[in-house]
Design brief:
Blueprint lengths: L4 H12 L5 E10 L11 E2 L1 E14 L4 E6 L4 E6 L10 H14 L7 E7 L9 H17 L5 H16 L6 H8 L4 E6 L5 E5 L4 E7 L8 H17 L10 H7 L5 H26 L2 H17 L6 H11 L4 E7 L6 E7 L3 H16 L4 E5 L6 E4 L6 E2 L3
Parallel strand pairs: 4-6
Antiparallel strand pairs: 1-3, 1-13, 2-7, 3-6, 4-5, 7-8, 9-11, 9-12, 10-11, 13-14
C-alpha cells in the first residue's frame, strides 16, 4: 500500500505529540540499462520510481537528531555536536549524511521525525540511497539552505562511501535527488550531466522482485571493480569509459581472460546505454527491448553477476507477449529484474509472469508496474494544504 503523507503526519503526531513541519520524500530507482558502468565513469539510464523513503519532521533547538523508524520499530538519536560509529544499521546512514554535510561546511539544525519507506530493502532498488537523500533533504529543509540536487547527491554518495563503508557509484543518489516525472535520466557519470529522456507512449516499466536477496557479495563487487581498474590501467586510460569496442578488440589479447570479460561488458554496456536513450527518443521500443536483452546476456556471461532466480525471472517476463525486453537490474546476485512492456497489458503481465516465475523457482515474487517520478521533494506541512519547499 502506498505511503500517504497524512498517515505519516499522524504517526509523527503520535510519537512527538505535535504535527510535523515538513514531509520529505526521496524515491528509490530502477535502472533501465547501464549496469556496473557508473564506477567506470560511464553512462546509466535510470528512473526515479513511485516507491520512496518518507520522513515527517520538525526542527529541534538542542542540536540533536531523534528519529523513529516505523519499518524497524526503533528509535535512534545522536548529537550534531559529536557522534561516532556505534553499530551497523539504518541510523548510520543518517549519521553519515550529517557527517558529510558538516564536513562540507554546512551548518545543521537538529530535528525529530518519523521515517518510513516502501522501497524493498536488498532488492537492488536503492533503498539506502533513498534514505541518504531523504535525510539530506530533511537537513536542508530545517536548516534553511537551498536544495542543489547534484551537489547533495555527491555528499550522499560520500556518506555511503566513507561513513557506511560501501564503495558505490553516484547513480543511486543522483537519480533519487534529481529524477524527472515521465522521464528516465541519461546520466554521464563523469561530468554528472543529466539528460531527461521521455518514455514512449503506451509503454510501462515493470519491476520484478525475485524474492531473493543478495548475500555476502561485497568481495564479488570489489573484485569486479578491481578488474575494471586493472583493465583501464592496461589500456592506459583514465577509465573504461575511454576505451571503445574497436580498441578493445584489437588489444584485449593482452589482458587476463577474466579481466577481459569484465571490460568487454562495461565497454559494450556503455554503447548499449547511449543507443537505448536514442531509441527511447525515437519511440523505438523494439530496439530498446533488444538492447535490454543484450545487457542481461552480457551481465550473465561476461560480468557474471546474474543468478538462477534472475535468469528465471527474465525468461518468465520475455515469455509474455507484452514484453519488449527484460534484464536484471542492480548489483546482481539476487534482487530485481526490469522489463519494458505494453502498458495496456500490465495487469495480465503481472499475473502471468508471477505465476510462471513461481512455477519455475518455487519463489513467490512481487511484480508491479511503476511510473517515473520527480526526485527528492520537501513539503511544508499544512494538513489542509501542503506546499513544496522553496529552493
Amino acid at each position: 500500500m502506498a505511503i500517504e503523507p497524512i498517515d505519516l503526519a499522524r504517526l509523527h503526531e503520535e510519537r512527538f505529540h505535535g504535527p510535523p513541519k515538513w514531509i520529505v520524500r526521496a524515491p528509490g530507482r530502477v535502472n533501465l540499462i547501464g549496469e556496473h558502468t557508473d564506477y567506470n565513469e560511464g553512462f546509466v539510464l535510470p528512473l526515479a520510481i513511485d516507491r520512496a523513503i518518507w520522513i515527517a519532521l520538525e526542527p529541534r533547538d538542542d542540536g540533536r537528531v531523534v528519529v523513529y523508524s516505523a519499518d524497524f520499530e526503533q528509535t535512534g538519536e545522536f548529537s550534531l555536536a559529536g557522534f561516532q560509529h556505534e553499530q551497523q544499521g539504518w541510523l548510520e546512514y543518517l549519521k553519515g549524511v550529517a557527517w558529510s554535510l558538516q564536513d562540507a561546511g554546512y551548518a545543521l539544525t537538529g530535528w525529530q521525525g518519523v521515517v518510513r519507506g516502501d522501497v524493498p530493502r536488498g532488492a537492488g532498488l536503492s533503498s539506502s540511497a533513498a534514505l541518504e537523500v531523504a535525510a539530506t533533504r530533511a537537513f536542508a529543509a530545517v536548516s534553511g539552505w537551498p536544495w542543489e540536487p547534484v551537489l547533495m547527491a555527491k555528499l550522499g554518495q560520500r556518506a555511503e562511501n566513507r561513513w557506511v563503508g560501501v564503495n558505490c557509484g553516484i547513480m543511486d543518489q543522483l537519480i533519487s535527488a534529481a529524477g524527472r516525472a515521465a522521464h528516465a535520466l541519461l546520466i554521464d557519470c563523469r561530468s554528472l550531466e543529466l539528460t531527461p529522456v521521455p518514455f514512449p507512449s503506451g509503454v510501462a516499466v515493470a519491476i520484478l522482485d525475485t524474492a531473493t536477496r543478495r548475500g555476502l557479495v561485497d568481495s564479488e563487487y570489489n573484485e569486479r571493480r578491481a578488474s575494471c581498474e586493472a583493465a583501464a590501467e592496461a589500456f592506459h586510460a583514465p577509465a573504461l569509459r575511454d576505451v571503445d569496442m574497436a580498441r578493445f578488440q584489437r588489444e584485449s589479447h593482452r589482458l587476463d581472460p577474466v579481466i577481459a570479460r569484465r571490460a568487454r561488458h562495461v565497454i559494450s554496456e556503455n554503447q548499449r546505454t547511449l543507443a537505448a536513450a536514442e531509441a527511447m527518443r525515437r519511440g523505438d521500443v523494439e530496439r530498446l527491448g533488444r538492447l535490454m536483452d543484450e545487457s542481461h546476456a552480457s551481465l550473465r556471461v561476461d560480468y557474471e553477476v546474474s543468478s538462477e532466480a534472475l535468469d528465471a525471472m527474465v525468461a518468465s517476463a520475455r515469455a509474455h507477449p507484452a514484453c519488449h525486453g527484460a534484464r536484471m537490474t542492480g548489483a546482481g546476485f539476487g534482487g530485481c529484474a526490469v522489463a519494458v512492456i505494453d502498458a495496456a497489458s500490465a495487469d495480465d503481465f503481472r499475473r502471468r509472469v508471477a505465476a510462471e516465475y513461481q512455477h519455475r523457482t518455487g519463489h513467490v515474487p512481487a511484480v508491479y508496474v511503476c511510473r517515473a517520478t520527480e526526485g527528492a521533494e520537501a513539503l511544508a506541512w499544512n494538513p489542509a494544504r501542503p506546499s513544496p519547499a522553496a529552493g
